[in-house]
């Protein structure tokens, strides 16, 4: 590849260390040519992808793609954090020595991009000029064009983000090689895939997938795993799987900011895109800052805890997205948004897309529809109930397409954080909301988040498990050290945020219906939380936090049976006492868990015993 230098010259890629990195991996992977990508290349790349059959048109300015049928979700087993120091081993990070993993990945990648183009995608996982921007620059090398198109939607992309770095070597080196998807033994004991973050070298090596959650290295691997490691190593910040919203009260003129973690496919995107319920819309407006990742730090000037979304787009779950549940999501993937749908059902004749929950009934005329595997649904047997869209089918769109995007979403400052919430799919025990005012108890609560896993991870759906801070798949270092770092960062802030645990997913034991209507109505418990913080309501004290009384919660226009309401606003003490034993076991796995966390655990346990 003699013209490699010339291509980089032509593209104005001047950072000498980036150029070295590109050369090293172009040689290793055997790519036939390289192409340096700027966001302004989007239109041309879309056209090329359509011409090559990688994307299909889904009406005007919308696109459709299908991923290989064994490559539709993140693989947690194959995801590894590698460093030189075994002290970085945690329970969840699948730690391996970098001396073992780097050569392994290099062997897998050697010659694996032969005949292909290696795209060079410089990116920034932060608004330009943000306090954490020094940890946000990266370059993803990928041999798949649709991954480039996703990156342009999900991150700020262009050579300007790496050319003028203060330290030219301080960028994340992210390499994505797709591999021969049909011969990787996905999910078998001969699985060849590896998704490795060499965290202490700020190098990401992913082999064997083109699914977004494995292949968009700016988002998942840098935004979460590498970000978390850097935040800890620098002592400066946290990188969390959190949504981040603004709530504007038009009556008082006040703005609040709430962030929080729910495991993948458990409601972050829907909460961030929330349109206030009709009865509250006159007074409140919810604005979208982020729906999957927040980086948190203490602002030096004000001493306050701040947060920002490092991403530039939304990679959202399609299932159950409709005019009622999430009108903003639908608008964000409307005509001329240049959004990309992946693994939904598709009608190539009309360009329509469909997924379960899009409409109550499936499209009437089955003729012409293809399911997510590309098979005609008209050929299905009558009793075939398999979904038309993959349960983890997704839409990808840029933040600017989101109707409720915050006006200042791209501002370098970030926003001050008033509240941090945790939640997940928990069918019993967890009430609608319980507020926690003590930092250690809040962190303890996050560390003991127990929820059902979802189809965002391979082979896990429905399994109840602990998912600390919703970061289990993204843990970069030891959980005890993580807890210490969390306490230190948030503890250094002058105004402490209030914590809360929320649950939109409690179910009736008999018929399984959701007790709480959810979606837009989720604003109500959040408003109560802010009122509690402001001293405007008192709630009811319990061992596991403060819960709202029925009177305090604004329920105007909510469709809920009185029995169901009572259930979601009460604590089953016996069930919670049982839970405390599981928590003890869970926390005992972790090395160096701070005393404050154990003290919080014992305090809650004692109070539960006193209540019983
Ligand atoms: P994320 O992956 O955490 O961003 O979760 P999403 O917001 O994409 O939601 C994942 C799935 O949960 C989608 O199928 C949503 O329709 C569904 N969901 C989100 N919020 C609620 C809610 O409040 N109640 C119910 N029942 N389902 C919800
Ligand atoms: P999600 O994002 O949390 O919105 O599902 C993708 C993922 O975490 O895999
Ligand atoms: Mn996520
Ligand atoms: Mn999401």
What does this molecule look like?
The chain is of the alpha/beta class and 612 residues long. 27% of the residues lie in helices and 21% in strands. The chain has 17 helices and 30 strands. The strands form 7 sheets. Strands 1, 4, 5, 6, 7, 8, 9, 10 and 11 form a 9-stranded mixed β-sheet that branches. Strands 15-13-14-24-28-25 form a 6-stranded mixed β-sheet, sandwiched between helices. Strand 13 (243-249) and strand 14 (255-261) form a beta hairpin. The protein is globular and about 75 Å long. The N and C termini lie far apart (73 Å). The mean pLDDT is 97. One manganese (II) ion binds at residues 268-269, 291-292, 316-317.
Give me some keywords for this one.
six-stranded mixed beta sheet, binds guanosine-5'-diphosphate, PEP_carboxykinase_GTP_C, phosphoenolpyruvate carboxykinase (GTP) activity, decarboxylase, binds manganese (II) ion, GTP-binding, EC 4.1.1.32
């Amino acid at each position: 590849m003699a013209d490699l230098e010339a291509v980089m010259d032509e593209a104005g890629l001047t950072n000498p260390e980036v150029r070295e990195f590109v050369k090293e991996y172009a040689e290793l992977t055997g790519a036939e040519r390289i192409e340096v990508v700027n966001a302004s290349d989007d239109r041309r790349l879309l056209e090329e992808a359509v011409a090559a059959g990688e994307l299909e048109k889904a009406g005007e300015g919308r696109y459709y793609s299908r991923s290989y049928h064994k490559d539709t979700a993140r693989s947690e087993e194959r995801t590894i954090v590698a460093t030189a120091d075994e002290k970085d081993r945690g329970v969840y990070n699948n730690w391996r020595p970098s001396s073992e993993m780097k050569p392994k990945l290099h062997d897998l990648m050697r010659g694996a991009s032969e005949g292909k183009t290696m795209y060079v995608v410089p990116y920034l996982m932060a608004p330009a000029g943000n306090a954490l921007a020094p940890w946000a620059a990266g370059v993803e090398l990928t041999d798949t064009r649709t991954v480039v198109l996703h990156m342009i939607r999900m991150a700020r992309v262009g050579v300007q983000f790496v050319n003028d770095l203060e330290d030219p070597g301080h960028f994340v080196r992210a390499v994505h090689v797709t591999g021969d998807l049909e011969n990787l033994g996905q999910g078998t004991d001969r699985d060849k895939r590896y998704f490795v973050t060499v965290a202490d070298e700020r190098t990401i090596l992913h082999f064997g997938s083109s699914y977004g959650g494995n292949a968009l290295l700016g988002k998942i691997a840098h935004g979460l795993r590498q970000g978390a490691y850097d935040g800890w190593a620098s002592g400066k910040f946290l990188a969390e799987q959190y949504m981040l919203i603004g709530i504007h009260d038009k009556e008082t003129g006040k703005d609040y900011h709430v962030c929080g973690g729910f495991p993948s496919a458990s409601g972050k995107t829907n909460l961030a895109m929330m349109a206030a319920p009709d009865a509250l819309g006159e007074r409140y407006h919810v604005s979208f800052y982020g729906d999957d990742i927040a980086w948190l730090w203490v602002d030096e000037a004000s001493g306050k805890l701040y947060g920002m979304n490092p991403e530039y787009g939304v990679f959202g779950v399609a299932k159950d997205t409709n005019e009622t549940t999430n009108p903003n999501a639908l608008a964000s993937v409307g005509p001329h948004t240049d959004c990309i749908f992946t693994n939904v059902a598709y009608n190539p004749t009309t360009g329509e897309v469909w997924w379960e929950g899009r409409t109550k009934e499936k499209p009437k005329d089955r003729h012409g529809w293809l399911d997510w595997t590309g098979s005609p649904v008209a050929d299905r047997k009558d009793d075939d109930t398999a979904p038309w869209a993959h349960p983890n089918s997704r839409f990808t769109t840029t933040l600017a397409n989101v109707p409720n995007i915050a006006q200042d979403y791209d501002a370098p400052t970030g926003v001050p954080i008033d509240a941090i919430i945790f939640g997940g799919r928990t069918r019993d025990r967890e009430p609608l909301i319980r507020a926690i005012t003590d930092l250690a108890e809040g962190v303890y609560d996050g560390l003991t988040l127990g929820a059902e896993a979802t189809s965002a991870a391979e082979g896990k759906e429905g399994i109840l498990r602990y998912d600390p801070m919703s970061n289990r798949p993204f843990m970069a270092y030891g959980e005890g050290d993580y807890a210490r770092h969390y306490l230190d960062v948030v503890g250094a802030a002058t105004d402490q945020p209030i914590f809360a645990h929320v649950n939109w997913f409690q179910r009736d034991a008999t018929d399984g219906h959701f007790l709480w209507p959810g979606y837009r109505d989720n604003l109500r418990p959040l408003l109560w939380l802010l009122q509690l913080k402001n001293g405007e309501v008192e709630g009811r004290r319990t061992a596991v936090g403060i819960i709202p009384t029925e009177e305090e919660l604004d329920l105007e226009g909510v469709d809920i049976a009185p029995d169901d309401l009572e259930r979601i606003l009460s604590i089953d003490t016996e069930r919670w006492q049982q839970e405390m034993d599981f928590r003890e076991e869970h926390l005992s796995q972790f090395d160096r868990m701070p005393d404050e966390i154990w003290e919080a655990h014992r305090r809650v346990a004692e109070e539960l015993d006193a209540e019983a």
